Amino acid sequence: MAGTAQELWSDTTPADYSWMRPNRRHLWTGLYLPGVIREGVGEIVIAVDCSGSVNQRLLGLFEAEVRSILEGQRPRRVHVMYFDAMVQRVDTYEAGESVALRPVGGGGTEFGPCFEWLNEHGIRPETLVVLTDLDGSFPSSIPEYPVLWASTGRSQAPFGQVIPVHAA
Predict the structure, then answer these.
(1) Are 78 and 99 in contact (CB under 8 A)?
(2) Less packed terminus of the chain by CB within 10 Å, N or C?
(3) Residue 51 lies in a domain
(4) DSSP class of residue 75?
């Protein structure tokens, strides 16, 4: 069963309830309920497919998806990884910094180097989001962290959750 991107993200976001901030949706009825406090997520990685099969239109969709992720989840740190058959560049942003995609690459697509790069640098993200058309080769092992494949294609991934990305 596939959920929406927001539902899948909500599953990875710490939340708690507090009476200090009542739920404003119910105040007008005179009902005071505790409000949800979202702490935001810690460290996430967004891998951007920059292979030859990804055109400017798809990159625009990817950029919109990145904005949606950052606005909804408020991560402490974001690593934006640009890859094709290898990791071309990684930009790291701290909480509140503006993220702008600057793609590099243009070759074939291999997803394995993304996971290898994370292992080599000792990064275990709360979530890895791969923005891709899913047209590439996958690694043989499954990582221990959640993987969301935000895909413009119709293919399936051998692990993780595939979220369809459509033009608005």
Answers:
(1) yes
(2) N
(3) yes
(4) -
pLDDT at 23: 62
Whole-angstrom distance, CA of residue 54 vs CA of residue 59: 7
Q: Residue 90 belongs to a domain with what CATH number? A: 3.40.50.410
Q: Residue 141's closest CA among 159, 126, 125?
A: 159
**Model pTM score:** 0.74
d(Cα 56, Cα 106) in Å, to the nearest integer?
Answer: 12
Assess if residue 140 is contained within a domain.
Answer: yes
What is the C-alpha to C-alpha distance for residues 133 and 153, in angstroms, rounded to an integer? 5
pLDDT at 3 over 50: no
Provide the 3-class DSSP secondary structure of residue 168.
Answer: coil
Looking at residue 168, its pLDDT comes to 47
Mean pLDDT of the chain, nearest integer? 80
Domain count within the chain:
1
Paired sense of beta strands 147-151 and 43-49, if any: unpaired
